[in-house]
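One record is kept unedited as follows:
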Amino acid sequence: MRSHVTTHVLDAAKGAPASGVLVTLEQHGGDAWHVVGTGTTDADGRINELGPDRLPEGRYRVGFDTGTYFAAQGTDTFYPEVTIVFELADAAAHYHVPLLLSPFAYSTYRGS
């Protein structure tokens, strides 16, 4: 099974996948955020099962526990967590939200 939203974390400082990163997927509803899925990146830095296989349109966020990941590596980081908020505008489309990470910078994009 592949969930509606997936992710991949690459540790740019090491040039390798970031395995063991805890990730939380939340949906915004009313005035609050609600957890719809959690997972931990595998040896390839991926989570293919992050929540259900179908989600309704709306606002979502993916949170990455980067502080714990870097602490396990013995590396200081400026960003102990990274949160990416996005609009799921097409309930039929797959959404891939990757994270390119280093101890002092990060970037993201809409993947395929």
In short: Strands lie at 5-11, 16-17, 22-29, 32-40, 46-47, 58-64, 82-88, 95-96, 99-102, 105-108. The helical segments are 66-72. The chain has a mean pLDDT of 96.
